[in-house]
Specification:
There is one protein chain. The protein is of the alpha+beta class. It has three domains: 221 residues, no CATH class; 40 residues, no CATH class; 132 residues, Trna Endonuclease, Chain: A, domain 1 (3-Layer(aba) Sandwich), CATH 3.40.1350. Helices cover 33% and strands 25% of the residues. It is built from eleven helices and 20 strands. Strands 12, 15, 16, 17, 18, 19 and 20 form a seven-stranded mixed β-sheet that branches. A five-stranded mixed β-sheet has the order 1-6-5-11-10. A hairpin with a 7-residue loop joins strand 13 and strand 14. This is McrC family protein. InterPro entries: McrC.
């Protein structure tokens, strides 16, 4: 008998351990699996502590056998401890940025209140498959070579002579078929079969079973990063794009337990620093039209003879008129609310290499504030000349994501607007 599915919800940088006293704890079997997974996975989503694990700057869902661990973002010094609100924040941020725009489906389209982000992705995937079945699955031409007893198509004489010297009643033939057995449908079918093995709500499993009844059986396909990157969409296959994106997340982040066959691991985790950077950039592109925003501009910084050049790459560069502003985004606020030495040294390099008019460290926080600072001029101990400040954006998890995006741009407009040479 399979153990009952269990869900634990924690925040980033929080630890969970083996314990008999608390329901939100690990079993020794689950901890062993997580320890092995930690040894073989890069980047590390958590660190190992005594009798447990401690999460770092990654959020999302980690599923181990029948246990689902949901890791939510949490801003230090924001008192709000409503897990539903923080889940909404994570989904909202993912919806706004880059490759995660599959979440553009309205929440009203979802038939359930999700326990975690994994269930949201899976329900959107099932909605997409339902739509594909309704419009009719993609058909493609494919070539088949087979040693058959009936003549169909063309005889492949080299193979025919090699294989059928004795069996005169056989023909090695090649023929073309126009049907639904193609790469797109094979990946969708494999994902549906994979979802059956996950720890999910009963109605998601029920919906998956119904879709599999309507979906034609397909041969297996070996998935890899290169398989997905080589897929080319055209007018007929464009409707598969969002379903295949979620399929990629589910299949490439699944790690079967080949030794014991019980505690499979699915890691659908996102780096909050990278997510925050993309979120700030998308906010600027959406609401700060008077500035030109450029992302990940790199300049050569250092090179060892015979080795590759190391580049210097700020998060976001804002340009208006003759002024250039460097924005370096950080999700985690330092303990003493001051930038550490390595961050300041990095910001100084950005200032000098990119001739920045003003360089800013951008954090989310409990209050809106813009603390002005400056680097000393290297030619004088007394004179200061390079503005480098810290900006915090007040964050309320109960406010809408759109409100927060507008607030980020308002703070930038207020603090950079007067400095621009228009």
């Amino acid at each position: 008998m399979n153990p009952q599915p269990k869900t634990i919800t924690v925040y980033e940088h929080q630890a969970i351990k083996i314990s008999d006293k608390y329901s939100d704890s690990l079993t020794s079997d689950q901890l062993i699996t997580l320890q092995k997974f930690h040894e073989t996975t890069q980047p590390s989503y958590y660190s190992l502590v005594h009798n447990g694990i401690k999460f770092c700057g990654f959020v999302g869902v980690l599923q181990v056998g029948n246990l689902t661990i949901e890791v939510l973002p949490k801003i230090d010094r924001v008192a709000e401890n409503d897990k539903y609100s923080w889940r909404k924040v994570l989904l909202g941020m993912l919806k706004r940025v880059g490759p995660f725009d599959v979440l553009a489906i309205s929440a009203t389209d979802l038939k359930l209140t999700p326990n975690n982000i994994l269930e949201v992705y899976i329900e959107i995937f099932l909605l997409q498959v339902e739509h594909l079945l309704h419009q009719g699955l993609l058909k493609r031409y494919r070539k088949t070579e087979i040693n058959a007893t009936a003549l169909k198509g063309k005889i492949v004489f080299g193979q025919h002579l090699k294989k059928n010297i004795i069996h005169k009643e056989h023909f090695f033939i090649r023929y073309t078929t126009y049907d639904k057995e193609n790469l797109f449908n094979r990946i969708i079918y494999k994902t549906l079969k994979h979802i059956q093995n996950l720890n999910l709500k009963g109605n998601l499993h029920s919906k998956t079973r119904h879709l599999l009844l309507d979906f034609p059986e397909m041969p297996d396909v070996v998935v890899s990063e290169s398989l997905y990157s080589n897929i080319i969409f055209d007018r007929k296959s464009e409707s598969y794009r969002e379903a295949l994106l979620i399929s990629k997340l589910l299949l490439l982040n699944y790690h079967p337990d080949i030794n014991r066959g019980r505690n499979h691991v699915l890691a659908l985790m996102f780096d909050m620093d990278l997510l925050w950077e993309k979120f700030v950039y998308s906010s600027i592109k959406r609401h700060l039209k008077e500035f030109k925003a450029e992302k990940q501009i790199s300049k050569p910084y250092w090179k060892l003879e015979g080795k590759r050049t190391i580049g210097l790459q700020p998060d976001i560069v804002l340009i208006q008129g003759g002024s250039r502003f460097i924005l370096d985004t950080k999700w985690k606020l330092p303990q003493n609310t001051k930038p550490n030495h390595s961050d300041l040294q990095q910001m100084y390099a950005y200032t000098k290499y990119f001739t920045s008019s003003h360089t800013v460290l951008c954090y989310p926080g409990a209050e809106n504030n813009f603390i002005k600072g400056k680097f000393y001029n290297e030619n004088s101990k007394n004179e200061v000349g390079y503005p480098c400040s810290v900006m915090r954006i007040k964050f309320d998890p109960k406010k809408s994501i759109d409100f927060w995006q507008k607030l980020i741009c308002l703070q930038l407009r207020i603090n950079f607007g007067n400095e621009s040479n228009t």
